[in-house]
Amino acid sequence: MSEKKLPLISIGVASFNNSKYILDTLLSIASQTYQHIELIIVDDNSNDNSVDIINNFLKTITIPFKFHINEKNTGVVSVCNKLLSLVTGEYYTLIGSDDIMTYNRIELQISRMLELDADMSFGDIHWIDENRNIINKNILKNKLPNNLTYIELTYNELIEYNFITAPSVMLKTEVVKNINGYNESYIIE
Questions:
Q1: Alpha-carbon distance 5 to 12, whole Å?
Q2: What share of residues in the chain are helix, strand, coil (percent, to 5)?
């Protein structure tokens, strides 16, 4: 597939007081094997040095980026909506400023989504400690049938068996914008 035909993927980072981890988060995005990406960061009025770390990092990359700093802390769901408002990619993913991506995550997800014409995908995660040591590997493996690569879920199934972890989700942008984004009456996205 030629570069011109590859969809733009927006990667949004919700930042708040994670100066200890934010650089690892940003480096994991800059190291993606899928290169047709844009980086969007919204800092929710951090009171540590997260903003300085982000600004220094942005000086070193060639990836297109947008960086917004909230004047006051608004909470994660509001930050998700702000990130969504800045997305220009056909697909997007949001992660926290204490999460990291495997180097080929975007490539694998968008490839599968395009193959299936899917509006959403999610993947497994590993819990890691502050030194990047894996504490628990393949969290979803024991919760889902073996070799599962495709699943259709109803709203009720999602509510009852919510095993989808937010940092692993990739969505088709227009689908989420068509439902007006994230419901800010909830405390999580």
A1: 22
A2: 30, 20, 50
